[in-house]
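Box 4.2: Ligand-aware structure prediction
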Amino acid sequence: MSISLDTTVSSLMTNRRRVGALKSLGVLTVLDAITYYPFRVTDPVPMLPLRSISVGSAAAFAGVVRELRVRPLAARRGYRLEALIDDTEFALEHSARPSSANLVFFSYKKHYVDWLSSRLAQGSRLVVQGESSFFNDRLQFTHPETLVIGKDVASQEEGLARVSRPRPVYHANSRISSEHIHESIVMMLQALAGSGEAETASSSPVPGASASGEEERADVSRVSANDLSRAIPDIVPEDIRVSNGAMHRAEAIVAMHEPADTKEFAHAITSLRYEEAFISQTALLRSREGVRATPGYPCPVDETHRLPADFIASLPFDLTGGQRDVVDAIQEDMAKPYPMQRLLQGEVGSGKTVVCVAAMLQAVDAGNQAVLVAPTQVLAEQHYQTISEMVRKLSAAKSAESGDEAKHDIPVVLLTGGMRLAQRRKVLALAASGEPCMVIATHAAFSTTFQAPNLALVVIDEQHRFGVEQREALRRKNEVAPHLLIMTATPIPRTAALTWFGDLDISELRELPGGRKPIRTIVVQEADGGTMSRMFIHIRQRVDAGERAYIVCPRIDESSDAEEDPEGGNLMSPDESEEGSAVLPLHSVEEIERRLQALPQLEGIRIATLSGRDDDETKQRVMHDFATGESPVLVATTVIEVGVDVPQASCIVVFDADRFGLSQLHQLRGRVGRGGTRSWAFFISRAEADSIAAQRLAIIEHSSDGTEIAQADLELRGAGDVLGDAQSGGRSSLKLLRVVKDADVVVHAREQASELLSKDPELSGETVLAGAVLDFIRGNESFLATT
Ligand code: ADP
Ligand code: MG
């Protein structure tokens, strides 16, 4: 059978349990296996004469078998094999006195025992590596790794070098150990290289036997990178690779799994990191070019198309300089015959909504449709209210001007998954009619029932996780592609933006409109009763002054897990955070509401609750009562994280703040102070002083710069947690590239990719690279498919 990177693991291995275990790691094909990289390598095992080995530590030595005994096990089926070995010669080389040790093996399988017996026959010269124990007055090695000199290796030196080399360590789970992962990968590399029997390493495990050492080891001979280079062709063009001093892909992959030393392992990582950067940048630059060749909806802005300008004039405030610039850029983009692809990054409260409404009106003015997609129901409703109000005022102004009412009516409709069927049908029908309209939606807009034949603009709000594959899918879904505007308040460091949004034009809104005052941020130790009490007195005073307060908790009730925040999984799991807070259960909405109801400081104040579990009607009512001041204190989960805009809200309290990501806390903090009032954020923590969690909170306590906070967050937690799996590369790509630390790599790769594309825009001379680019883009389209 010929084996390629696409060959499935299950067709190579007879051991079903092993196949299932690998599957649980996401390893289904040979490619998955060989790119399942170790996260570190062990230190080299020291070579020591037996006398110098301390019990319990790993060591390598050489010796001769003096006696071999095989005994059936008394209590259960199976055999015990014991080889007495002495290290006379080896000890003398190390100027030590000779000694002896027992090598012990257990097995149910007669054929395995026979095989071992022939290897460890009396007089065999061995190199041994393993962890020592002490038993029957003697040093003992249970299931050690053994190499027979003159058979497995030519010399003692070669054997010792082999067994003492650093070993890769993999992320394992309860179903499979790091050693077995390693063994499986090496087996597949050997199969790929055309050497080694694919089946040898997968003899079925013996029930009840100890997990390791039972199976024959696959890594007897090192896989040759040369043999592999046909099966694992290079992706980065050779001249570029060589100019960077990088390894061939095959060589790098072998060095990841079978490093000769730590230096080689590091070189392999650098090489593969560059490869990831190069593929992703080539893909993004190609995608960017692809956009220009796609027909879009030109939406002109001129004397007869004045709707956006009229809208801006109808606002009760002037745009900030930043808003003005972004509006201009968008107007220019949308007038072009190919689709806009723009990312708008703007601090919480920087006024992104009016910018996107102007863009939506530009689409409508040209006789087309526009949709705004919000990440949550609450946010969609909130947008619907503000935007329909803005548009109503605009229509009224225009009607007053012209004295004719109906003509200026611009339909603004809401579309969510939870809507009543009849209402939804009406909205879907309006969209399907192709009539100009503005649709405010949740992800319901991505379901196939939503058809808008004249959709000229898609705005994605607060969704930095709208990845390149989703953007491509959206573009390919329509014959004429809509303009795309992605808005996010999660500041993304420049190189991270290049890595994930390298196909987009990026605008930023840095200033906050209307002279907003900075939010006073105070970290409060939960155990500090005095401060906690003063905080509630403060909240009482603010509420009495007509303001509102949010109280945020990570869980809904005592029995629930941390509530999935709208963007998924930003909460740290207890094993990531340290001592103290990890063991204490997280606070819940239900529990905190109960406690607040009993607080004398809040007596007589109506307290409402809100969580992702509430139905839409409840959510709407609760937000309405909060906005009007009917119930001025709202205990909620992170459903309020993004975009919710109640100008009178001046205080936010976050319980278990030490367990949230910094960018998320920054987002939450942005919920207050939106009405120009003074405002406060209280981050309640149970983290030990000096812990990393406490250090993280100190950063946000002293900084209101979103970019700085995001940078610190990325450094302290890693990109996957902060930006989500889709953005950190999904399943297949960007496994090694670190967006903050590898900034230089990304920039360099972008330059080299751009140079290559200028010479060969279709990558016709680089078929392997072209395939990798396609894989990168197609990595994960599930976001659009599952809604
Ligand atoms: P975000 O960027 O977080 O989405 P919003 O668009 O919700 O921010 O705007 C926050 C608040 O600022 C809203 O109440 C909005 O009406 C107001 N706003 C927006 N632009 C201006 C401006 N130029 N001057 C004054 N207030 C503004
Ligand atoms: Mg917003």
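In the box above, the bound molecule is magnesium ion. The first helix runs from residue 9 to 12.
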